[in-house]
Write a structure and sequence with these properties.
The chain contains 4 helices and 9 strands; from the N terminus they run ααααβββββββββ. The protein starts with a helix and ends with a strand. It has a 9-stranded mixed beta sheet. The chain is elongated, with a radius of gyration of 18 Å. By secondary structure, it is of the alpha+beta class.
């Protein structure tokens, strides 16, 4: 017998395969961003709420997924997944979400299931806005590791002591400065004093 949990888990797997959060999948499908959120899966009275067939159909169309493939997700087929902490990029600049090393900390994080993630320190950031186009678009999810080694040319997430969080390409790093190349030609490159940088974390993967 098909269960409520199986269907919602399949939607989470569908989002993960597309490199999206549940809200990102809903946006891509042209739905209200909260359609697939965990808060919508249970009614105020505590009863299970099922996703509509229309919302599932739009999600399948938006990701190019067949109904047969979706049934496979319901049955748990596919690569094993692991949940990693998820935070909106816009919220990452606020205090309380990271420790001094750039590792996830505190409360307020959501979760997203990623297939094939073996980095126990990895977390995900959901892109909002257009400042990182064409590399990353609104609703894309980037997988980040504060423990991964960083080399010139890597795409990275940087947080400054002023609370600014940005995704850039590392051009050069010295004892005094970090030079960053913008991912969007309309935004200037940046050179930041090393003493003004809280942490730098490497982007491992991104949905496209």
């Amino acid at each position: 017998m098909l269960t409520h949990a199986q269907v919602w888990s399949a939607i989470d797997r569908l989002a993960a395969r597309a490199g999206l959060s549940a809200s990102g999948l809903a946006r891509r499908a042209g739905l209200d961003p909260t359609t697939f959120n965990k808060s919508k899966r249970i009614t105020a009275s505590g009863r299970a709420r099922w996703p509509s067939t229309e919302s599932i159909s739009k999600a399948l169309a938006a990701t190019g997924t067949s109904i047969e493939a979706f049934v496979g997700l319901i049955q748990g087929a596919g690569a094993p997944t692991r949940s990693v902490p998820l935070l909106g990029f816009a919220e990452a600049g606020a205090g309380g979400y990271f420790d001094d090393g750039g590792f996830p900390a505190g409360t307020g994080w959501d979760e997203i299931a990623f297939p094939g993630v073996d980095d126990t320190h990895a977390y995900a950031l959901e892109v909002s806005g257009q400042s990182m186009e064409p590399a990353y678009r609104d609703g894309d999810v980037i997988l980040v590791s504060p423990a991964a080694p960083i080399r010139r040319g890597d795409r990275v997430v940087v947080k400054t002591r002023d609370g600014e969080v940005m995704a850039k390409e590392l051009k050069r790093s010295t004892a005094k400065t970090i030079e960053l190349k913008s991912l969007n030609a309309q935004h200037p490159d940046r050179t930041i004093a090393t003493e003004d940088v809280l942490w730098v974390a490497r982007i491992l993967w991104a949905s496209q």
